[in-house]
Amino acid sequence: MIQGIRTGSRWGTFTLALALLAATQIQGNEQKHDEQASPPTKGQRVFTCGHSFHVWVPPILSDVAKSAGIKDHQAVGLSSIGGSRVIQHWNVPEEKNQAKEALRGGKVDVLTLSPIYLPDEGIENFAALALEHNPQIRVTVQEFWMRWDIYEPTTSPPGNGEKVDHNAITGEELRKRHAPYFKEMDDHIRNLNKKFGKTVLYIVPVGQAVIALREKIIAGQAPGLKTQEALFSDPLGHPTAPLQALAAYCHFAVIYRVNPVGLPLPAVLARDKNSGWAEKLNRLLQELAWDAVIQHPLSGVKAETSRPER
Question: Residue 2 — φ and ψ, nearest 5°?
Fold first, then answer.
């Protein structure tokens, strides 16, 4: 069972946060069939299917959940395929398909997916199978940050040898470029939930949180991060530790429907724990993740919880 944070911690009590969120009425058409509006009352069993922009989430999520006092959180399995669409995980041979096995065995509370672009029939396939074996299942879909900072729904890099300069782009331009991708994904998830007759699929708005962080960097308001490029290990956009932590906080907020602000420095950022700015950066990442989640109409999280005193 979920345990309360020790008295006097900066984060307050996890139990209180659960009660506050549970007491809040979820509104909007996206939630009208949602039987899972309240935060879960115990740790979740999470299976992950993804590519290199997602597969590092499970260990960070487990670390964050543990620090929040969620002792029975479980990462029950991982299907990792580089550069993959969800349908590729679905098409893994039956005798090797751990995702299907776990779902059929009723061993999963939350299935996390990370499609690159649409169409991707794997999303519906997995959601239907998951729902068949667990009527209370939640399937989360990660909206991510664009590879090469462009809307290119293929696996091809920019043409003409164009150099990717992550530092040259503005927040306004990032939002403009991401808009068609975000809309396409939102429309797809809405339509699938309508087809299922209930809210089964939820969006984890990592892409929106990343844009907000990049705007903070541009404004000189992100402790320890002097350039946008510091978030990426290559032109494609593979994430460095701060971006990984940000994404994990988004997943935590969607899965547990609780504000992560005030949780201690996670292991993924621990190498900078003596830097003088790591704690401030960690809090900023938590705030940006929570803000992105509560503002997204398909995250399943509609309420603000109390935050600790600064």
Answer: -70, 130
